[in-house]
Amino acid sequence: MARIVVDVMLKPEILDPQGKAIANELPRIGLKNFTDVRQGKRFELTVDGEVTEELLAQAREAAAELLSNPVIEDVINVEALED
């Protein structure tokens, strides 16, 4: 079985309290070189058989219409996951 990965991130202008909380904690555990953190979502869609361009197009449609909220999120990536 093959998988398609969809990555969704908050739009840059949307506040990200979870990312901010993580960014604030990184120095506490000794990681001081990171200046910002943005959190997102990753979906893995499993398909029977091979990932085709048609299946990728369907995944893009699902990402745009169901997996993301286009008001506050951007679909960043839709691709076949290599095993």
From TrEMBL:
Pathway: Purine metabolism; IMP biosynthesis via de novo pathway; 5-amino-1-(5-phospho-D-ribosyl)imidazole from N(2)-formyl-N(1)-(5-phospho-D-ribosyl)glycinamide: step 1/2
Organism: Rothia terrae
Catalytic reaction list: N(2)-formyl-N(1)-(5-phospho-beta-D-ribosyl)glycinamide + L-glutamine + ATP + H2O = 2-formamido-N(1)-(5-O-phospho-beta-D-ribosyl)acetamidine + L-glutamate + ADP + phosphate + H(+)
Matching HAMAP family: PurS (MF_01926)
NCBIfam families, A to Z: phosphoribosylformylglycinamidine synthase subunit PurS, PRK05974.1
Protein name: Phosphoribosylformylglycinamidine synthase subunit PurS
UniProt-listed Enzyme Commission number(s): 6.3.5.3
The entry's keywords: ATP-binding, Cytoplasm, Ligase, Nucleotide-binding, Purine biosynthesis
Ligase found in the keyword field: yes
Family stated for the protein in its record: Belongs to the PurS family.
